[in-house]
Amino acid sequence: MNTGFDVERIRKDFPVLSRELPGGRPLVYLDSGNSAQKPTQVIDVMREHLAMHYSNVGRAMHALGAESTEAYENARDKVAAFIGAPSRDEVVFTKNASEALNLVAYGFGNPTNDDPRFRLGPGDEIVISEMEHHSNIVPWQLLAQRTGATLKWFSVTDEGRLDLSNLEELVTERTKIVSIVHQSNVLGTVNPVAEVLARVRQVGALMMLDASQSVPHQQVDVAALGVDFLAFTGHKVVGPSGIGVLWGRGELLEAMPPFMGGGEMIEAVWMDHSTYAPAPHKFEAGTPPIVEAIGLGAAVDYLSAIGMDAIVQHERELTGYALGALGEVPGLRVIGPESLDRRGGTVSFTLEGIHPHDVGQILDDNFGVAVRVGHHCARPLHLRFGIPATTRASFYLYNTPAEIDALVRGLHHVQKVFA
Amino acid sequence: MNTGFDVERIRKDFPVLSRELPGGRPLVYLDSGNSAQKPTQVIDVMREHLAMHYSNVGRAMHALGAESTEAYENARDKVAAFIGAPSRDEVVFTKNASEALNLVAYGFGNPTNDDPRFRLGPGDEIVISEMEHHSNIVPWQLLAQRTGATLKWFSVTDEGRLDLSNLEELVTERTKIVSIVHQSNVLGTVNPVAEVLARVRQVGALMMLDASQSVPHQQVDVAALGVDFLAFTGHKVVGPSGIGVLWGRGELLEAMPPFMGGGEMIEAVWMDHSTYAPAPHKFEAGTPPIVEAIGLGAAVDYLSAIGMDAIVQHERELTGYALGALGEVPGLRVIGPESLDRRGGTVSFTLEGIHPHDVGQILDDNFGVAVRVGHHCARPLHLRFGIPATTRASFYLYNTPAEIDALVRGLHHVQKVFA
Amino acid sequence: MIAESMYQELILEHYKHPQGRGLRDPYDAEVHHVNPTCGDEITLRVKLGDGGKVEDVSYDGQGCSISQAAASVLHELTAGSTVDETLAVVEEFTRLMQSRGQVEADEDVLGDAVAFAGVAKFPARVKCALLAWMAYKDAVVRSST
Amino acid sequence: MIAESMYQELILEHYKHPQGRGLRDPYDAEVHHVNPTCGDEITLRVKLGDGGKVEDVSYDGQGCSISQAAASVLHELTAGSTVDETLAVVEEFTRLMQSRGQVEADEDVLGDAVAFAGVAKFPARVKCALLAWMAYKDAVVRSST
Ligand SMILES: Cc1ncc(COP(=O)(O)O)c(C=O)c1O
Ligand SMILES: Cc1ncc(COP(=O)(O)O)c(C=O)c1O
């Protein structure tokens, strides 16, 4: 690789990558699509904060409270800058991407809110797609069930692309919200946001993007994208667990009813009613994931210092290499785009006659190769392809071609075991 | 203090307690009711997990996935044991106590659920109290507004006790749920759960306890308490931010609709409907706060090793000492019980003629004494006492009588500044 | 001895050469169980005989090697045993599987099924191992009533 | 110079001896502002004169020393200035308060109000410091229309 990007130096930032697994196996971590590993830069910031600066935020006025609040709110600034948010107040910290998606879903069809954009009932429609993660399916199913609205979805082509051939029938005047994934966590496909958005604007609906798999792997700019809401999750951007982000247009966040009630999301409380703080605090009920937000701030600093462009380039080379090498394994079928065109570094596949659970387990047991097997929280997509499960290798900034070689060697061994 | 309990040794476990604040002030942390400090034992477990064992849980089948899943689920075992839960499956990890309270509130009045216990509409009643934290007020207000149910509340006596004189009028056949605080975060009052519960059972309603301030400070046993739901929050039990707990009776968790939808809370997903995993996973949508749960497990281990009885005894001595010493400050009025009877180590007060914000700031600026000032997320309780705010000192296992002396010295100085 | 790896020779043997596979007549009860999270399925029939004996356990299904091998091992263990004996094994097997690797397997009770001990550490695979066994338990209940 | 502590002598001086406190006639506009999170309140009147001059700012209220002193300092700063001049100060003061301590205070513009620089580090107190100033801005708008 020749990108001014030093993967060996980067690997040293991630302590676990030099770990030996039980039995002396080295770790070959190809499961970053599931969750990314953490660099020392993130771990240390969290440890230091927990040990020396921790206290509750917002409500505490003493020295530690000021330090914690400043660190927490600085993290919001960092995240806002990282995703190009026009205002820091549009960045809501949640516990993960799932909460961000549910938060928006619960914003619709609430009888106490009469903003027409968020009214939802029988006759109104919600549009998602067949390639969604369960976290961008179930919240909308629950919403449809609660309100009587109709759930519709884009289908997926054999090549693993969003099928937009019926865009106009699918997204209509009845549509209130379209929520689709930016980059598929199974196929690797990067979806054509602008094309869908143009139709969404035509019919006056809102659009949400599940960017859980794009924010870690490309420079995402919410202003340039032009959507209304965007969700992602901290643990996939080398940040900690327990933190996610909802970005939403300020005026929409203002128009939405609160989701959860509690400390910090209020302006004033009486026994019989309350008024609410402006966004983002309106949506951050209770003590937030303080140290986790701070860790996320350190994570986006880390990625920015390396440069998202360099990361994109590195992953592109890895993905090209992987598609080539996997293509030579007999009986291996890639589910998703087979070229580098509009796709990220996530490669899912089946091995003829061998169940993915067995593939994954042997890769792990014998070679320390960590991949994900199953339906990757995208069961409908697997049903679409008529398969119960796939094996998925997903790459990140710290992966190397040698690790892809280890995967391929492992697959050959799997085939030998089950021959 | 003579309890076989070595507070100086304990203080060494908490790195921040030996920190110097800017200007060379020592830290006197009397704000544990807001959030507790963290011992090395918790910080190290989290750091070690993040650095060497981290991966996503449940869904990952490789070695790291198994380690993370085991550590995460072990934390559930620890928490279950800590609160005497009859089954580990009754312990749901949330992001904080507020989410736990909202989760239960959203369980009511959901049109997709027809369990009569969770049906809620006009004519049905919810009962809370005037001494609740906003996190146990606003979720129920929002629920009442969404469903048309009526919100009622216990009042508070001049001594800061729950006024049970109208228990029978308040809790009636129309009541679906009573949710009150176990120990007040302002008054320190410990509420008579059994008395309220007897009436709740008589009318066939459900009962929830906000145990955010009791679980850190006494041995809480959900089976012995006999309530239906209980919430608490990790950061107040020397655990990390970003993690909370809902305990609920198994059969009720089973009867409730899911709250948030997403990965891990499902059994199977089709585009048009889904089936759900059994509790606790049904209520843990998306990647949970993994490292935070593990940190919470380490926190309850830490507290158990010291012994909750010893902690109770220590706090009792501190509280007695504090009530005595504060009683001698001229113009100081304690809001809440003035004796040690049925109260914990939280002492809120007003200083005549001086605004609590000024009290808190000077205590901090000049003496490094960290107290909380304001309404402590219990504005209705302050309205009840006709005061905009109080100053609150709250104690924990690591506090000493010398720190209370520092507080009192500080208060004398505050009075001098504003004389 | 607890297995280091999940893929004991014995499991692979059973997977490649499943014992008693195929649905047979006659039977007292037939059940169909699915593991929705991974899509593994099994159809299983039980024929009980006199004196509480298990006469035949026949099955068909699809899924990973663990779920398929578990069915094969089950078939072998039940052959010629009484219902009570087999239910004791099912119980011990279930206990082992749900132990998350914290419990020593009792080889005296489990016989060949001890080879699955390594599975217990992988919550996601536990259901695969248990699929046939739970189906069997279910089928026995239905046969006797 | 940015204050180390929030309680500058000047703030305490203003708190103990508030300048221009009390509501006076005549006035062009009266506003009542409340900080709901801490309960601080202020009633403030503005009387404008010829040539865009501020003739009088009178006020009454209750709350912490910061909010009360801020009203007193505001009174002093506005006396004899033009509306435009005072609004420039209000703007700089607001910028300083919302900087979370990241911005250097411009003493030339702020005068005595620079004493509040230390408040900017305490988000919860920023609203106290701003209460009177926001009320003033509001009142000026109402006076001129
Ligand atoms: C009594 C009480 N209930 C609920 C809460 C809310 O806890 P959290 O902010 O962690 O959700 C708190 C603390 O803030 C509390 O003291
Ligand atoms: C595309 C996509 N959406 C949503 C999620 C959910 O993220 P989380 O589990 O952190 O809520 C994930 C990852 O799990 C994902 O890959």
List the helices and strands and how they pair.
The complex is a heterotetramer, with two copies of chain A (419 residues) and two copies of chain C (145 residues).
Chain A: H1 7-12, E1 20-21, E2 25-26, E3 28-29, H2 40-53, H3 63-82, E4 91-94, H4 97-107, E5 125-129, H5 138-147, E6 150-154, H6 167-170, E7 175-181, H7 193-203, E8 206-210, H8 222-225, E9 229-233, E10 244-248, H9 250-255, E11 266-269, E12 274-276, H10 290-306, H11 308-327, E13 332-335, E14 346-351, H12 356-367, E15 369-370, E16 372-374, H13 379-384, E17 390-394, H14 401-417
Parallel strand pairs in A: 3-15, 5-6, 5-7, 7-8, 8-9
Antiparallel strand pairs in A: 1-2, 4-10, 9-10, 11-12, 13-14, 14-17, 16-17
Helix pairs in contact in A: 2-10, 3-10, 11-14, 12-14
Chain C: H1 9-16, E1 29-35, E2 40-48, E3 54-62, H2 65-78, H3 83-97, H4 107-110, H5 123-144
Antiparallel strand pairs in C: 1-2, 2-3
The complex binds pyridoxal-5'-phosphate (2 copies).
One pyridoxal-5'-phosphate (PLP) sits between chains B (96-98, 133, 135-136, 181, 185, 210, 212-213, 233, 235, 244, 377) and A (262-263, 286-287).
Structure write-up:
The complex is a heterotetramer, with two copies of chain A (419 residues) and two copies of chain C (145 residues). Chain A is an alpha/beta fold. Chain A contains 14 helices and 17 strands. Chain A has a seven-stranded mixed beta sheet with strand order 4-10-9-8-7-5-6, with helices on both faces. Chain A folds into two domains: 7-30 and 307-418, Aspartate Aminotransferase, domain 1; 44-304, Type I PLP-dependent aspartate aminotransferase-like (Major domain) (Aspartate Aminotransferase, domain 2). Chain C has a single domain, classed as Sufe protein. Chain: A. In chain C, 43% of the residues lie in helices and 17% in strands. In chain C, helix 1 packs across helix 2. Classes of the chains: A alpha/beta (419), C alpha+beta (145). At the A-D interface, helix 3 of A face helix 5 of D. The complex binds pyridoxal-5'-phosphate (2 copies).
